[in-house]
Amino acid sequence: MSVPETTRRRLLFGSTALGASAVLSGCLANTPPQQENQAAVAAGGGDNAAPGKHVTIGFSAPAADHGWMAAMTTYARAQAEKLPDVTFRPTEGGSDVSQQIAQVETLINEKVDVLVVLPADGKAMTDVALRAMQAGIPVVNVDRVFDSPDAYRVWIGGDNYGMGINAADYIAAELERANVANPVIAEIAGTDSLPLTQERSAGFREGLAKHGLEVTRRVAAEFTAETGERQATNLLQAASHLDAVWNHDDDQGIGVLSAVEAAGRDEFFMVGGAGSRQVMDRIKAGNGVMRATVLYNPSMCSSAVSLARLLAQARGMSDLAEHEVPRSVTTYSAVVTRDNVDQYLDVGFAS
């Protein structure tokens, strides 16, 4: 009996498919062991939530002289309390660098398993961090970076340059939306001698330049409400009109807002920095100059404690394929506005 051409083609196709399947099966059967294990590598970090060996985490940070710094210590302690396999050994916040160095030396002598250090001065504390690493104690360097990469196993901190960029992008978009031509843009920086302030200012300046804008007026405070109020008063007296203001820090912003209210000025909008709860509440209320804030989240200290635990337990991060904790982690500086403020209230800190 003759086979119709269409049926013959189907049979040939089916035979070809079966042949291909057989070849494929043969290839899979001969897959080298290292390729068979590739799928398992994706779980390199294991289950981070599962208890591991008990470890002692030493913690050192400067004195809690303003809200953001106090929140860093609060977050670290709270995270450690959630971890049943961790003993948390914090030191009292030092009033100066030499006191903090002595406290870290004490933790080294106690042979803690791992150190989390937010240095008052990264350069000044590099040597003691190097000694910890040389003693076999991994160091998690938080925010203010040590001078040598050998002084820490992992760094975690905020994106100061990115803060400036994101603040500039938001301000430029708001000015364009309001159709403001030749705007007067002011910047109230933090402590000018600090690299973090320099990076924030560079990001802001270069971010504005992308939009054909520039900083018209600039003053620098010192991350306190008192200096913020004093410098904002000087700025407002020198500038009869402003269109937008970026204040680097919400702690000094308490003083800045006091000066604004005392002067009765409301012709401009203001963007903050770091993300205090007081500023977020003002943004949500929507009844003043405060329009947004750019995060520099103290919750990074919670993450630092979690990373320290994994380092001491020789584990990686469960959502990453690598078997080790990464060398560095940079947090993101989200812009908090009235539209999304509810999403970020949980990380707002008290100024």
TrEMBL record:
InterPro entries: Peripla_BP_I (IPR028082), SBP_2_dom (IPR025997), TAT_signal (IPR006311). Pfam families: Peripla_BP_4. One of its GO terms (cellular component) is cell envelope. Keywords: Signal. It comes from the Bacteria. Residues 57-313 form the Periplasmic binding protein domain. GO terms for molecular function: carbohydrate binding. It is found in: Cell envelope. PANTHER family: D-ALLOSE-BINDING PERIPLASMIC PROTEIN-RELATED. Belongs to the bacterial solute-binding protein 2 family. This is Sugar ABC transporter substrate-binding protein. It comes from Saccharopolyspora rhizosphaerae. The lineage of its organism: Bacteria, Bacillati, Actinomycetota, Actinomycetes, Pseudonocardiales.
